[in-house]
Fold this sequence. Notes:
Layout (H helix, E strand, L loop, with lengths): L1 E10 H11 L1 H7 L2 H8 L4 H19 L12 E5 L5 E5 L1 H9 L4 E8 L3 E9 L1
Antiparallel strand pairs: 1-5, 2-3, 4-5
Amino acid sequence: MISGMGVDLVEIDRIDMIIGRWGDRFVQKVFADEEIRYCRKHVLPAMHFAARFAAKEACLKALGIGFGMGVGFKDIWVSRSDKGVPSLMFADKARILLDKEAIKGAHLSLTHTRRHAVAMVVLEK
């Protein structure tokens, strides 16, 4: 049974500008080490950071909350299987909320162009 769905669109140039201004301070605050390693190994890291930021936002929308409502940026992160399939991982307050809401599955789809990154999340009970 579907519990929630969220979609988010992020402008890649905006993330690139924020990284240019704040550098590691922003990256370390928002992204898990696994996400940072993955994004930085690409020619256009901002594209991949933007997709992961969109995934975090889409997940919160699916939960019916926003940042600042108890779940931190690093409580949700994107991992990838050996075949490259993205999935959501949860820690700390996000894990507690998912357990409280009896969420049994989280499905993630990511896509991007040169200008935009989009993430869609479906949560199921």
